[in-house]
């Protein structure tokens, strides 16, 4: 099966798919597009004009990062979901929950001023508090890597960068969330899912946006 991932280098949703592909040892090609100047062929295959899109055998198209991860999990060896049906459903629900946190985090990074940044951080904090209670540790389900880990790694990686740049003092209130990132960061799939100079690229991207966060990058 030929897999081609349509990507943008700094997109956390694309990163979810790459982590899953790497963890499953699936061969894939990457095609980058410019989100500021989307090509017509991309708009024709992506219903929302969003990345990631997975093209299968040059014909079928799968969109939505969580669905792409489920698909990759199904067509490759092994299963990155827990066996128990309730726990599987639970994991899927937390994957869906993570999407809003990714949006909260992006809104923090593009907020124009300190107040906008704080407001979004408080929203993210409420969600992080709920997430904290759901983590078994060190990874979401314990020792074994799951799709839910792939879904959250991009978010956690960006929080680790954010707290080096801006004051996120209350992030210390989430020890299991932080320990989760420590455990994830050791896996080769995580650095493998981003450009080598990821942090520099991320800083440059937001510096250009001249947001409150960007001004400190
Ligand atoms: N729910 C989608 C969200 C994907 C998404 O929002 N991707 C962003 C980039 S990170 C995008 O393509 N945005 C389109 C745009 O910027 O116009 C998923 O999980 O795949």
From TrEMBL:
Domain GST N-terminal residues, every copy: 1-80
Keyword Amino-acid biosynthesis set for record: no
Any single GO CC term annotated in Swiss-Prot or TrEMBL for this entry: cytoplasm
Keywords, comma-separated and alphabetical: Transferase
A GO term, aspect molecular function: transferase activity
Domain GST C-terminal: 84-206
Domain of life the protein comes from: Bacteria
A Pfam family the protein falls into: GST_N_2
Stored InterPro entries: Glutathione-S-Trfase_C-like, Glutathione-S-Trfase_C_sf, Glutathione_S-Trfase, Glutathione_S-Trfase_N, GST_Omega/HSP26, Thioredoxin-like_sf
PANTHER family attached to this UniProt entry: GLUTATHIONE S-TRANSFERASE OMEGA, PTHR43968
UniProt protein name: Glutathione S-transferase
Provenance organism: Thiohalorhabdus denitrificans
